[in-house]
Specification:
Helix content: 40-55%
Shape: elongated
Oligomer: single chain
Structural class: alpha+beta
Number of helices: 34
Number of strands: 37
Radius of gyration: 44 Å
């Protein structure tokens, strides 16, 4: 509703206008005057008017004529009109109402009646305006949905349809809207299954999803559709009863049939495949199927494999982070793992290639035995190394050139013999090394080699200094795997292969350096004595040492804490003795500056052709930050467990307090005013209230407090928390309060506000290890448009400002930017979870407030909290409502409470106000008692936590037989079984323990009178 609704007052008598204006202006309305019908129409055309007070009898143009013109104009047709006349004839009233008048009042009128009718019509107008906006919003949403949507009224006629509906079914709005759904498209929609959904299923169920309908449409052919139906009880022109969302699954059905056939073929391949195949479920990686080949390879039957993981059947594939593996599999569709070691059931060691394929709901893991291939690869590697060594040991010339006779590779003997540099040879052809009389023969030999595959020639090789050296050259044609000619290789007698080996080695080293220097992992290599022989530059980033400082040092001795050296030496020697691989081996390393760095190491043995251990090579990864996060998570879980315990204690204590406060209040009320016991009973009740406040603080610690939004005086809250804050900070920290004068009232949950202040005080304590001053102040802040534009946050209005400032170490800009992030902390491991400020931020945000931090290193820190100010009238209204005495009644109430003392108290309180009470001590008895007396029970007062069945389960049983029975839940804290929001959305009421008798009676009466 607007801040000042605008009312047009039309009367030919100025004194009548002034009288009406005097009544209306005091109620906050803005008045526009018009002394004739024509003037009224002119002012309506240039002003936005919310309501018209229209005199019936006026010269020139009567009120009825003005009303007719007003209703004929689309701009003004919906403005509410109250007609005023001195006549009281029924005929005038009927005529006014028929002309479109919204209300009618006779002169002289009662002021209060006039104001009531004006207020009522304005409320209806603004509600209609909001409904129009909501309808337009809903229509826009419907038109943006890709799936066809159609809305039906209670008579199953089309009220609206989405744009996608018209496009998909090739119809127009004109032939759709207003039609009975079965009549659409010449009765194409008269589908028996659709009738069953609309006329049988939906009347019994408010919603129904995935209802499959298959039908042959003349316009779009045969379609299979899934219908999602919702009954919506809202006013939108005519009340909508059903919303149908239509999903075309024709193609999906066709694909499902193809998938079924594909699965049959897959099953046959699965059973007959020569590779071992296991199928893994995607959540944890457990095996659900294994084919016969897998059993033959690994020695485990399918029955023995099902339910286990890959490493349980000997596959040493690292599956510790299985969700991450599945995420990679979903992205790429297939994952390859080569040379994975496998140990069979009989103890045999194999090498396998593993291909993991994404199969929708499962992951297919193909295991191929490549032991022989790996052995052959090792042999090939040794043979290649042998050939390279042989070529490098030759004193003959060795060279390779392409089909254009450009040298591709050559050995050093060619440079030595010819005296040519590499750069010179690279620009030469083989014929450039010969004299003119030999060039033709060498060229012919090259052509012969290309044509016949091999050739040879004797010629004088001419060195750079002019010396001619006789050489016999053998040339051979080179082909690639496809059989295509790619070049010529040649050997010249007396020329070694050393230069070629050096070139090859240099290329290999450059490639290795490029790979190792571009990674972020520490790549290392040690010899069989455990001494570093290689490390990449990453070691300097991780430990502060340059690579040359690391080479030659002891791997398991020189970079670990002294107290761990002997144990690590023993473990590493064990790896060396077994020549085994190790993955993600945790270790503690010492940085050059003395700090500790946690790492995970993966290493593979380096073996020669005989299987002798030459050393190890592998990678190290810094896991220091990850370890900190894991420690923070464990600490947070521990605090959650402590909080749960605190919440449980508070729940039981609330029941005890309820009994103390209830009976104490009854005794107090029964004492005479001059009774000496009255003062003593006052002390008892005061102590009980303090205990209730203590319980609430315990619930604040456990984070299970019920969110109670009510007026809170911020100054009183801080003063009440002063002692607790003094206990949180150390004695060497001075606590100052700088509280502004006046009533600083906000709508808030007091417990959560206390939690925010305690979190900030705790952080301030940690920031002042040597002592200092903590200041908590309050004030009033007005945010205008200029303030919001300047600072980039807030909404214009009045705010209560809370300042929490310390004289501590302060924080830098980078830390300020992250300070409200969950799990961000500058404290050491085990000293904090990083949740305190994140929780405080969320609490202030939920209270429509703002929190900012101002700090510089060495200059302390100040937090500013802004909470919307509420006016004193709202506080007074709530306090006044609390003083109204509770009323009784003659209804029957079912009381279910497992605490005997509290059950007895509540029964006495209710019966003392003439209610009939039926009690139950647990959930099952509550259900039994209700079933026996359901005809006369008007209200069920149910404790949420009870033996045998909890409150939610009891109400579910009650609602099955009596959906209209009124329910009042009671509990000492927000439980995990059902949230307060769920209670509200389900139409339930809730009362928090401990509850005073008058509050219980007031709540019961309020619910019964709904």
């Amino acid at each position: 509703m607007k801040n000042k609704p605008v009312i047009l007052v039309v009367d030919d008598q100025l004194q009548n206008i002034e009288l009406l204006e005097a009544h209306l202006v005091t109620q906050g309305y803005e008045i526009i005057q018009a002394e004739s019908g024509q003037e009224a129409l002119e002012k309506l055309s240039v002003n936005q008017v919310d309501l018209v007070l229209l005199d019936v009898v006026m010269p020139v143009m009567s009120g009825f004529e003005v009303l007719a013109k007003l209703r004929a104009n689309k701009k003004t047709e919906r403005i509410p009109v109250i007609m005023i006349t001195a006549h009281r004839e029924t005929e005038d009233r009927v005529k006014a109402l028929e002309a479109g008048c919204d209300d009618f009042i006779s002169k002289p009128f009662d002021k209060h009646e006039l104001l009531a009718r004006v207020k009522s019509l304005l409320r209806i107008k603004f509600l209609n305006d909001e409904a129009d906006e909501a309808r337009e919003y809903a229509e826009n949403i419907i038109d943006t949905v890709r799936e066809p949507l159609i809305a039906l009224d209670q008579d199953l006629r089309v009220v609206a349809a989405s744009r996608s509906f018209y496009v998909f079914f090739k119809v127009t709005p004109k032939e759709t809207v207003g039609q009975l759904i079965y009549d659409l498209g010449n009765k194409q929609w008269d589908i028996p299954k659709l009738r069953e959904l609309l006329e049988t299923i939906l009347p019994q169920q408010a919603t129904f999803d995935n209802y499959e309908v298959e039908h042959d449409f003349s316009t779009i052919g045969r379609r299979i559709m899934l219908l999602n139906a919702r009954q919506i009880h809202r006013v939108w022109g005519k009340e909508l009863i059903i919303l149908l969302a239509i999903e075309d699954i024709t193609e999906r059905k066709r694909l499902e049939d193809l998938l079924t056939e594909s699965e049959l073929q897959y099953r046959r391949l699965f059973e007959t495949a020569s590779d071992g195949i296991v199928l893994l479920e995607k959540s944890e990686g457990h095996i659900i199927h294994a084919n016969p080949a897998a059993g033959g390879m690994l020695g485990y039957s399918e029955k023995e494999s099902v339910g286990k993981k890959l490493w349980d059947i000997g596959v040493s594939l690292d599956m510790s982070d299985f969700p991450k593996i599945m995420q990679s599999l979903r992205k790429s569709g297939i994952l390859n793992y080569e040379d994975v070691p496998v140990k069979t059931r009989s103890g045999q060691e194999l090498y396998t290639d593993i291909y993991m394929v994404d199969r929708a709901k499962l992951a297919q893991c193909n295991i191929r035995d490549v032991t022989e291939r790996k052995r052959a690869a090792e042999i090939l590697k040794e043979e290649k190394r042998f050939i390279e060594n042989a070529l490098n040991s030759l004193h003959d010339i060795f060279f390779v050139f392409d089909l254009e006779e450009r040298f591709l590779r050559w050995n050093k003997t060619l440079n030595t013999v010819t005296g040519c540099l590499d750069s010179e040879i690279a620009l030469m052809k083989l014929t450039d090394f010969f004299r003119n009389d030999d060039v033709a023969r060498v060229s012919e030999t090259i052509r012969k080699a290309v044509k016949e595959g091999i050739s040879s020639v004797d010629a004088l090789l001419v060195a750079k200094d002019g010396r001619g050296i006789p050489y016999a050259f053998n040339l051979a044609l080179l082909r690639n795997l496809q059989g295509n000619s790619i070049g010529i290789s040649g050997v010249g007698r007396d020329i070694t292969e050393l230069i070629k080996a050096e070139v090859a080695l240099r290329e290999s080293e450059e490639r290795f350096i490029q790979i190792t220097e571009s990674t972020k992992e520490w790549i290392w290599e040690v010899n069989s004595d455990g001494l570093f022989t290689y490390t990449n530059h990453v070691v300097e980033e991780l430990l502060g040492y340059k690579p040359e400082e690391v080479v030659g040092k002891k791997y398991f001795y020189d970079f670990v804490p002294p107290e761990q050296r002997e144990q690590l030496k023993k473990e590493i020697n064990g790896f060396f003795a077994k020549r085994g691989t190790f993955a993600k081996y945790p270790s503690t390393n010492v940085h050059k500056n003395g700090s500790i760095v946690l790492m995970e190491t993966t290493g593979l043995p380096i073996l020669n052709s005989k299987g002798d251990l030459l050393g190890y090579r592998g990678i190290k990864v810094d896991i220091t930050e990850r370890q900190k996060l894991e420690d923070q998570l464990r600490h947070a879980q521990k605090m959650e467990a402590v909080g749960t315990l605190a919440g449980g204690i508070a729940h039981d204590f609330n029941n005890i307090l309820n009994v103390i406060m209830g009976y104490g209040g009854m005794v107090y009320a029964s004492l005479e005013a001059d009774s000496p016991s009255k003062e003593q009973m006052t002390e008892v009740l005061t102590a009980a209230e303090r205990a209730a406040a203590l319980t609430k603080r315990l619930l604040v610690f456990s984070r299970k407090q019920v969110v109670e939004m009510k007026p809170v005086n911020i100054n009183e809250l801080i003063l009440g928390l002063q002692k607790m804050l003094a206990r949180i900070i150390r004695e060497n920290i001075e606590l100052n309060l700088d509280l502004a004068e006046g009533q600083l009232q906000v709508m808030a949950d007091g417990g959560q506000m206390e939690q925010v202040l305690m979190n900030l005080a705790s952080n301030a304590k940690d920031a002042m290890p040597e002592g200092g001053r903590l200041t908590i102040g309050t004030g009033l802040k007005v945010m205008d448009e200029e303030y919001v534009a300047a600072y980039g946050y807030g909404k214009p209005g009045k705010y209560v400002l809370i300042r929490v400032a310390d004289t501590g170490q302060g924080i830098d800009e980078e830390t300020r930017e992250k300070i409200f992030e969950p799990f961000f902390t500058t404290k050491g491991v085990g000293e904090g979870t990083g949740l305190g400020l994140a929780i405080s931020y969320e609490i202030i945000k939920k209270h429509d407030g703002y929190i900012n931090v101002y700090s510089e290193p060495g200059k302390g820190t100040e937090f500013k909290i802004y909470l919307p100010l509420i006016e004193a009238a709202a506080v007074l209204e709530e306090k006044t409502a609390a003083t109204v005495p509770a009323k009784g009644g003659n209804e029957t109430i079912l009381l279910a409470e497992d605490d005997a003392a509290l059950r007895k108290l509540e029964r006495i309180v209710l019966e003392s106000h003439d209610y009939t009470v039926i009690t139950a001590e647990d959930g099952e008895e509550a259900i039994t008692k209700f079933m026996e007396n359901r005809e006369k029970i008007s209200l069920a007062l149910i404790d949420m936590i009870m033996p045998k069945k909890n409150g939610k389960e009891v109400v579910e049983e009650i609602r099955k037989v009596s959906p209209q029975t009124k329910i009042l839940f009671a509990s000492g804290y927000t439980m995990d079984i059902i949230k307060t929001r769920e209670l509200t959305e389900a139409g339930f009421d809730f009362i928090l323990k401990p509850v005073l008798p008058r509050d219980l009676l007031k709540k019961v009466r309020e619910i019964l009178d709904k």
